[in-house]
Design brief:
By secondary structure, the chain is mainly alpha-helical. 62% of the residues lie in helices and 4% in strands. The strands form two sheets. It has a two-stranded antiparallel sheet. A two-stranded antiparallel sheet has the order 3-4. It is found in: Cell membrane.
């Protein structure tokens, strides 16, 4: 759903840029709390890289149409909503600057739609479901599925509203809404499956690393002499018996590299939901060439590498590497800033 340059007029793009900047500022502040624990900061950079990799895997959803992960729900559930907004924003920035995917003048639109809306909506649905579901790990997976499913058509609605305000072509909003929401409900199913499988896999080995799963365990109560009393806490699992954070991080990185460097070659070549709707409804008649169209990595291929498989694979590996480095740098910087804020000189912050 990467919006290219020319779909939305300049004033509306500027307003969404301000909205995106405000969202990032709030997210940076909120992420200081979420990244305060040592276990979260390394995972956040990996989550950004994983989202980049999986977004290269377009899957067919209808005749001539494909979809790909947006990632807002996955990021919010794994590392928290504020950090999740930053994760998806880092991915969008890397894609726009290096790979000519998503317009640079439309970066505010894309961050607002793909990072902010998906994360806020999905996390609200996720928390709402956890409030009524049994407090079990399985409930986290179920809530992840539903939250991700809802987040994609929510993003489609958000795009439709932005287009209604600042679209550059004269197309019926009703037609745009019907087409966008219809195809993105189908894409949402794929998003939900990917999100639930990923969250479930991490919970299976290290539930303490999943932001959305923390604090779910209920204290067991026993009836003793007619009164309910708290049962003793079960013995903690020895650190040596758990999968280490480093192992989880390396496994995730290898998976991201394999997905982007190899599996992506077999992704669907059909246009994604927005591209298909834009072409069918005439939204793309005023689309502009990307400012980074001459980038050595434009269109997810390495310039001057003639073999398509090798070119795409190298581009994917480079993208994962750049994203994990950039994302980790951002999140470590935010964490260090939090450390400075809570230093002895500032005990009240």
């Amino acid at each position: 759903m990467h919006v290219p340059d020319g779909f939305i007029d300049a004033p509306t793009s500027a307003v969404t840029g301000v909205v995106a900047a405000g969202a990032l500022a709030v997210s940076l502040r909120g992420a200081r709390r979420e990244l305060g624990e040592e276990r979260t900061a390394p995972l956040a950079g990996l989550v950004a890289a994983f989202i980049f990799a999986v977004q290269m895997l377009n899957f067919p959803v209808a005749a001539g149409t494909s979809g790909h992960l947006l990632g807002g729900a996955l990021a919010a559930i794994l590392v928290g909503p504020y950090t999740g907004v930053l994760c998806v924003s880092v991915v969008l920035l890397m894609q726009g600057v290096l790979f000519a995917d998503g317009g640079l003048t439309a970066l505010g639109v894309n961050i607002t739609d793909m990072a902010l809306v998906t994360t806020v909506v999905s996390y609200a649905v996720f928390r709402g479901l956890l409030a009524v579901l049994p407090r079990k790990r399985r409930s986290v997976t179920v809530a992840s599925f539903v939250a991700a499913l809802v987040s994609v058509p929510a993003a489609a609605v958000a795009f439709t509203l932005i287009y209604a305000i600042g679209g550059t072509t004269d197309v019926s909003i009703g037609k745009v809404a019907t087409a966008m929401i219809g195809v993105h409900v189908l894409i949402g199913i794929g998003e939900a499956v990917i999100t639930a499988l990923t969250v479930g896999a991490v919970i299976a080995v290290r539930p303490d690393l999943v932001h959305g799963a923390r604090g779910l365990r209920q204290r067991l109560r026993l009836r003793v002499n007619g009164e309910l009393v708290d049962a003793p806490e079960p013995a903690a699992v020895p650190a040596a018996a758990r999968t280490s954070r480093r192992t989880v991080w390396l496994t995730g990185l290898v998976a991201s590299l394999v997905l982007a460097g190899f599996v992506s070659f077999y992704a669907s070549a059909n246009p994604d939901g927005l591209e298909k709707v834009a072409h069918d409804k005439g939204i793309d008649t005023k689309a502009k060439e990307h400012a980074s169209a001459d980038s050595p990595l434009a269109d997810y291929g390495v310039k001057d590498v003639s073999d398509a498989r090798l070119s795409g694979g190298l581009a994917g590996v480079i993208g994962v590497g750049v994203t994990v480095v950039a994302g980790s740098a951002v999140f470590w910087a935010v964490r260090r800033r939090r450390g400075a804020d809570v230093s002895p000189a500032n005990p009240g912050l």
